[in-house]
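Incident log, structure service

09:12 report received: a user says their structure output differs between two submissions of the same chain.
09:20 pulled the input from the user's history:
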Amino acid sequence: LSPFVGVGKRRLGWTSDVVTDYSSVINETSFRRHSLMEPKWHTGLLMLAVVIGAVLRVPGMGDALNHDEVYTWEAFASQSFATIATHYPVPNNHVFHSMLVRLASLAFGQSEAALRSPAFISGLLAIPAVWVMVRVVLQSATGAAVAAWIMALAPVHIRYSASARGYSMMILLSVLALLCLWQAMGGHARSWIASPSRLWWGG
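09:34 re-ran on a clean worker, output below:
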């Protein structure tokens, strides 16, 4: 019976290790969730950054379209959705953005503000997005607030958010992609170094 007793002990030990590992994962997840719960004044700072960001971006929404914006509209966004998706003669066509501009023009008309609304909304969404990314990666409420306010007040981002081009959307999607990459890597800084080497060696 001793061989069977030994196997049973090993299985019980393996089960115990699995339960311990699973419990540690649950505890770590619970800790992260609690650590991301913010005091009201932190949430207030984020909301204020979004409001100030909107106030700084609205004045440029009604300005006359510049050359690049006009070209984007005439060559791409004013065309059918099928043409937008398949016609790419130059990199000036930000395909997803052009589709949203087309959709906005059908819903709200062809005013400057309507054509710029996708970029405007993307610019505002980038403010809480960068807040979340910094908060998750650095586990720092102060760093998240600073990052959100930098995004809200950055002159270049203000200009992109009031321009009928896809740059503010690229910034938003880049922030979200970095956040997804961090989560996919398990939220460990060493994964940023390990992953490229694994991709290189096929591991």
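09:41 both user submissions now match this output. Likely a transient worker issue. Closing.
09:42 reviewer note: Confidence is low (pLDDT under 50) at residues 18-35, 192-203. The CA atoms of residues 57 and 158 lie 6 Å apart.
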